Amino acid sequence: MNNPEYKPNNLPKIVKLPLTAKVIAGLRTGDSVRLSGVMYTARDAAHKRMVEALEKGLPLPFEVKGQTIYYMGPAPAKPGRIIGSAGPTTSYRMDIYAPRLMEAGLKGMIGKGQRSQPVLDAIKMNKAVYFAAIGGIGALMSKRIIKAEVIAYADLGTEAIRKLEVEDFPVTVINDIYGGDLYQRGKARYKIIA
Amino acid sequence: MREIDAAEITKTVTRLFIEANYHLTDDVLEALQRAQDTEESPVGKEVLGQLIRNADIAAKEQIALCQDCGAAIVFLELGQEVHITGGDLNTAINAGVREAYETGFLRKSMVFQPFSGRVNTQDNTPAIIYTDIVPGDKLKIIVAPKGGGAENMSRLIMLTPSAGRQGIIDRVVKAIDEAGSNPCPPIIVGVGIGGTAEKTMLMAKKALLRKIGLHNADPEVTELENELLRRINELGIGPMGYGGRITALAVNIEVFPAHIASMPVAVNINCHSSRHKEAII
Predict the structure, then answer these.
(1) Is A138 within 8 Å of A37 (Cβ atoms)?
(2) CB A84 to CB B65 under 8 A?
(3) Best mutation target, A10, A137, A183, A193, to test chain B (most B CBs within 10 A)
(4) Most buried by CB count within 10 Å: which residue of A34, A101, B123, B197?
(5) Pick from B58, B107, B245: which is nearest to A139 by CB?
């Protein structure tokens, strides 16, 4: 509780997408961030296809360089709405694919839950960032999405790749380029050892 | 013998799945509000506030609380004096699931052939149905849409008798510690103790249906529930794993006699968006 390095991040940082190297360097584990701009959705099935494409030397359905991927498969939109409920899915299932995408230039990932060591290493090495969005508040998150369009793998339905435009999209920095990890830090701070 | 029309079962299942996906139950909402009062972590408090706001938006705007509208799990308590007419029971339930997920704009998350094709079944069927035959002439239907993130953190631990009470505590706490932020804490922990491998898993799942604040009728089990809840909340995982005092809202245990050689323990976790709804026909 008395760690002087810890400051609650009550004032969110306003960040425009796509991320730049300068912006990424300024992000620290624990920062509350509001994202605006373009991001792409992909979860298990789309990741599998993208990495298979890379292995075959084929182009990806969008230029991944500098981009941010949101691990999300939305609920269907009711008439008059842009998108249905749209919260993050658990990230570790993408761990096997994420380092390959970072190698191809991916800079931002948004999901929830802890990542594997190879992903943490790749984040540091490629100077990328892992954000978490709050899981289970998809109704609220859907209101921060102002445009949504399926751009690839339409046959995957909810798992298709969507290009999203977001405004004031609330996320928290979990892993920064300096090796910080909010899950470890947060837990260590509140753990009670009997 | 009382007759129940299969069409009425379909209609009820449809209504229940839509309601369960749009509305958090009062006991969960109240538990989240209490958690917000007691949570010491400022970030944790903020997260809990967002969960409550989300429930408010979903209910007001009649949209899904979470994009993961779950596998469609259905528990039936079928009175032995009931005669179902106009169709068969499982078909009627699947028709209700299909209708709910289509007309309620709920995400369809089921895929065929899990190990290869993984092609979406397009209507969130098949439902996962458990039927108990009970005395009486009524049909109780409980629906429990279950998200994949929390379900993936389930554990079956085939302990042997010498592990005792402490062995159960250690292994359950370890399972929650390893799950960490993945199952969307604050969670509800269902625990099965005894029976056989499949029996205890089912008990753990059913334990998640219990209202928050209610305990197992056996005081010795209640004591174990309280101790496990305390130990889990000492882990420091906190709301969404950002660190905090509230990792679990409840631990619900169901117990069944076991074989002389065995002490199976099952852990099934529900995310904070603990969704279930029931009706009696």
Answers:
(1) no
(2) no
(3) A137
(4) A101
(5) B58
Residues contacting A57, CB < 8 A, separation 6+: none
Phi, psi (deg, nearest 5) at residue A180: -70, 150
Per-residue DSSP letter, B170: H
Q: Where are the alpha helices (DSSP H) in A19-159?
A: 21-26, 44-55, 98-103, 117-126, 138-142
| pLDDT at residue number A10 | 61
Residues 6+ apart with CB under 8 A from B233: B245, B246, B247, B248
Distance (Å, rounded) from C-alpha B76 to C-alpha B144?
A: 11
Interval B7-36: pLDDT, tens: 999 999 999 999 999 999 999 999 999 999
Going along chain A from its start, the domains and CATH numbers come out as 22-190 (3.20.130.10)
Task: Provide ipTM, 2 decimals.
Answer: 0.96
Share of chain B above pLDDT 70, in %: 100
Confidence of residue A3 (pLDDT cuts 50, 70, 90): very low
d(CA B76, CA B4): 14
Indicate the pairing of strand B2-5 with strand B82-85. Answer: parallel
- Can you give the pLDDT at residue A176? 98
A93 CB neighbour count, 10 Å cutoff: 18
Query: Across-strand partners of A111?
Result: A132
Residue type, B267: V
Residue A107 and residue A84: Cα distance in Å, rounded? 26
- Inter-chain contact A139–B245, Cβ cutoff 8 Å? no
Say what the pLDDT of residue A11 is: 84
Question: Which of A90, A162, A172 has the most B C-beta neighbours within 10 Å, making it the best mutation to test the interface with B?
Answer: A90
Among A109, A106, A105, which Cα is nearest to A88's?
A109
Which residues are B265's β-sheet partners?
B157, B193
Preceding peptide of B186 cis, ω within 30°: yes
Q: How far apart are CA A133 and CA A118, in angstroms?
A: 21
Residues A114-161 have pLDDT tens digits of 999 999 999 999 999 999 999 999 999 999 999 999 999 999 999 999
User: Which DSSP letter does residue A152 get?
Assistant: E
